[in-house]
Design goal:
mainly alpha, rod-shaped, 99% helix, 1 helix, 160 residues, single chain
Length: 160
């Protein structure tokens, strides 16, 4: 019996030692569990922050998509205006060409008119010279006629 009690005491001591070891391990596990719970809480907090950031990024992305769509519409509108301006520019170029042709024609007409005026001036000078010549001849004829009349009158008066 004493051997059985001694065995039981050794076994009890061994069980106590094992239990103390298990209690120590349990304490260590509790500390690790507390640390893991703190890590889980930190991860939850970080996850919430990331979710908030993702939500904010999604809102910014949606705003950027809206802005891009508005810019596309603006670009489309500007392209339409550019196309219209190009058409107007082509029409204006045609009008400018027509006006240039009209101006060339007007210049040619002006040159022709200047030539005609110059020709008329030359003819007018010739007519003027002829007129002066005939006026001189007319007045010489008149002076000759008046001289003849005076000569006849003077003879008539002197002879009487």
């Amino acid at each position: 019996m004493s051997a059985g009690i001694a065995d039981q005491r050794v076994e009890t001591a061994h069980l106590r030692q094992t239990m103390q070891q298990l209690l120590a391990d349990l304490g260590q596990f509790r500390q690790e569990l507390t640390a893991l719970q703190a890590d889980v809480e930190q991860l939850r907090h970080d996850l919430e922050q990331l979710r908030a950031q993702v939500s904010q990024q999604q809102q910014q992305l949606q705003q950027l998509r809206t802005d891009v769509e508005q810019l596309r519409q603006e670009l489309q509108h500007l392209r339409a205006e550019l196309s219209q301006l190009r058409q107007e520019m082509v029409a204006l170029q045609v009008k400018v060409q027509e006006l240039e042709e009209y101006m060339r024609q007007q210049r040619q007409d002006l040159r022709d008119l200047q030539q005609k005026v110059t020709s008329l001036e030359v003819r007018l000078e010739a007519v003027r010279a002829d007129l002066l010549k005939w006026m001189f001849i007319f007045w010489l004829g008149n002076l000759g006629g008046i001289g003849a009349i005076l000569f006849v009158l003077a003879r008539y008066i002197l002879l009487r």
